[in-house]
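batch job 7 of whatever, protein = RING-type E3 ubiquitin transferase
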Amino acid sequence: MMEDFPIKTVEVVCLGTSLALSGLFFYIYKKKRKTVDRLNEAPRLPLDGKLTDILNATPGKCLQYVVIEGAVQPVGEPLRSQFQEGTVGVVQKLVLKEHKLVWNSLARTWTDSERILHERVSHVPFNLVGADQASVRVLCPLEASGLTAEIVHEKFHQATYGFTDIIGQYLSGEKPKGQLETEEMVKVGATLTGVGELILDADRTLKLRPPADGSAFFLTPADYEATRLEQEGQAAVWRLLAAFCALAGAAVVLWAARRYYRRLQAKWEQDRLRREFKRLVGASAAGEDDDGEEPLGNACVICMSEPRNCVLLDCGHVCCCFGCFEALPQPTCPVCRQPIVRVVPLYQA
């Protein structure tokens, strides 16, 4: 009976999409949940002179996942801002964006659009420095999550154009607004929270690097508690999205199952009516053997051979036999052409 299951193409697409999205969101949630669990289990180590002794006493001189906080200090010459005199940092990001208005033919309005024309990210080696001038070298800082830089320069260059440019803009459907020039830096002296794998190198240099087991690597100006709460919030959002998509898929299945059950109910009712009409036909045939042939005026208007044994509702016409009613191409009354809502047996005393 599964080939008769009344599920439509749109419902199949919706069901497949909901299941795929639910699986994807649940996978992301599990990764976020794992990150939260690792953050909850990670020890928070003070950045002082005792950290080297701790690593020396650790097998392999490696702690797989720890939390440390310290101030940024460059190893060698820092990066200097191109726009702000005296501003130095260890990570620098220069971005040039083009802003313009694009005509949306569907909404019949102009919408904002932006495009990156140029982007350059530079960094120099740096340490996180704590008490007693103890330091930890940060490796691969650009691979870390949460590394937000401070905007030290932002300037918008307004576009200028003449009359011919305006005509060309309306013909092309694009109006340049201008270019936004920004510079972001992780400044020297800024406090960062690092979460990752801590090792003691052969030259007794402490280094923080991305974990070898693939766990999340963090380098953020937020403190540990704020980072943990942010990750918990993201995990809750992905779990909610996964549950919503799963419920949407279940709703599609229940809707199709409800329609299938209604179809079965209609089939069961039709089978019951068929059995009832067969019983009436058998009783009518027995009556004809006793009383003679059925009068022609009571014959079915379609086959002209079987007696009229059903009432078509809602019009109420008694004009055909049940066999001819089942054979109708459309559920409409042969007499008045009104839709047939249901049919009931005709009982004759």
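notes: Residues 218 and 265 are 60 Å apart (CA to CA).
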